């Protein structure tokens, strides 16, 4: 897998085999590109895919040599990755080769959570689920079944659930990740940021990263564009209590006291307004509420912010001037994982307001207007209309959440639930909730009372341990999935084809959902004879075909020339007022502060440190921590401890300690990393380690798990995001 393919090695491209696709009796066969290296006699096959090592879906090529895994590389045409996959994406074969994978369906025979299962056939598993689903529908109504989904195959389970009569479909990555960001931008500009981010970083002359640790967060597009901006000499300002990889590329590192970012943002707004550094024409033409904003931020001077944030006033002024000097090509990055301290929608909104004052929304080097695309559905009957929907689960709270809240569904499942909609069944696709949803106690209370829990996963993860039925999906390298559509500067489609045969008795999501649908009497919603027919139909409607996509992997549908707002254009924003709302009338109407205010958060007591967390560049959440390739690079996580703190505790590099949080919860042992690169009032670890599932043999009890220590959750009153950084730990040596 290590040798680089040299273009001059390609002597012959098998033209007859190149992307040939034949229709035989309604069944579509495909053949992928075969390249023969005559010198060595190797047969090299190149199959299009998009990556599932995280959920960013970079498009690439899977290369097989003589039918065996060789290498996975990025597709040059793809705007998600610009032809370069990250470490995890390059290690995709590890997911395929992992012998700890789920091998066949399982049906629970012991107590929930005790992990006692019997092997089952697919037919038995489907019978079990179909029977339960029919009882739940007749007794409680189909609305009481919810789907938690993170990953490509989830779309087929969405169809299944919609056909069954429920629209309670939640991506935990809303409430536990980017929900506050999306709501903050919708409230301010009338549109979300979405994924991949509409940030015009490659054209930015100044980038302000608040927490966002691009470089350790290795989403390929973000890393690539950040690198391009650096190369062109952009001014980088990084606000982070930790000297991150991004900070090492920055002109300014602002080691802020954790939980005080809103104060810094308000002080920046104050300087930009008081020193008249804002874009006058833009503000006049496109915004509303400037006077109210000006009045509200008058008190937030840099001098006021200094003792709060520990960032010196002259640095606050200097950095504000740099932002203004480069505007509108200044990007105050909106971040991604934004559930920090519970007041997150307001914090992110403060950044959005700053962007508005700098005139960067809809401007080159700021945020572009993305081209979005949606493919036609394969024809199916109308979905039944649910009598109740996920909104009923939160009992009137979090009315500004535009997507279903996983925490809300959890709350509406536990025995004490008071909501009109109470959940009885869960499908969980590609989400290891026990390691990614804070408030594990509430989650377990919910899991214990479910009438049915079905988990579709590739690995025996912690959540599969609680399932009634475990359905083993094959890895992305062994399956077709829906066509990837994405927003961006261009509208692009990407195809994933199976490069390898499914190992063991694992199956693709499309097959599982369809077969189960047929068992449940919902076959009409899956009327395609083959997955190829389904994909080809959708592609043809979009002006392509499966044959073409098998050849090219990525297709650019249209290029748009309205990426930016034109000078003087009478642009209408998606807010109620049609303007950028510096003062939010919606927030006012719902009883929230129309202009962000600084809220003081609790601080750690003596001998306690705030627990902050982030990403390992070599892992995706906890989903790769058992990967046989990546575990060789990073087998466990470490806790970053400031040198002075280490000294006072007598800790040395490499020593193992346990962490105990404010509620007395003690973590697994974790290695100490003594460093000057973090403030003394916090400690840091990467998320995704400390697995407690024994069947993940490479990762079992390796390092510590941040979620265990996050027993205090600070819910965002505006949209229900689960703030996770209000926990404090001390050392158990
Ligand atoms: N390699 C890799 N890349 C990934 C992922 C992965 O699992 N692995 N996951 C992807 C996903 S889904 C997401 S959402 C993103 C997450 O990545 P980002 O959105 O970049 O993550 P952040 O929430 O900003 O958190 C990480 C940074 O915040 C800093 N921080 C902690 N507390 C504070 C604070 O109070 N103030 C400030 N200013 N900084 C603070 C930490 O020190 C750390 O550097 O990464 C994506 N990319
Ligand atoms: N403590 C803490 N909690 C967090 C975070 C954090 O940093 N710290 N990060 C938050 C963020 S940013 C996010 S986006 C969420 C993500 O949290 P989730 O939505 O729960 O997603 P993952 O952690 O990616 O889920 C991993 C599961 O997907 C399975 N899987 C991997 N590939 C496939 C596949 O092809 N098919 C199927 N069916 N399953 C597959 C893995 O085996 C694993 O069990 O977590 C959030 N929770
Ligand atoms: S960022 Fe990396 S892991 Fe995520 S999809 Fe892209 S290549 Fe795969
Ligand atoms: Mo995320």
Question: What report would you give on this structure?
Answer:
The chain folds into four domains: 1-90 and 476-505 and 529-570, 2-Layer Sandwich (Formate dehydrogenase/DMSO reductase); 101-168 and 389-473 and 508-527, 3-Layer(aba) Sandwich (Rossmann fold); 184-368, Dimethylsulfoxide Reductase, domain 2, CATH 3.40.228.10; 609-732, Barwin-like endoglucanases. The strands form eight sheets. Strands 9-8-19-18-17-10-11 form a seven-stranded mixed sheet. A six-stranded mixed sheet has the order 25-27-26-31-24-28. The chain has 22 helices and 31 strands. Helices cover 28% and strands 19% of the residues. The protein has 733 residues and is of the alpha/beta class. The structure holds ligand MGD (2 copies), iron/sulfur cluster and molybdenum atom. The site of molybdenum atom has 4 residues, from α5.
Brief account:
Helix 4 runs parallel beside helix 16.
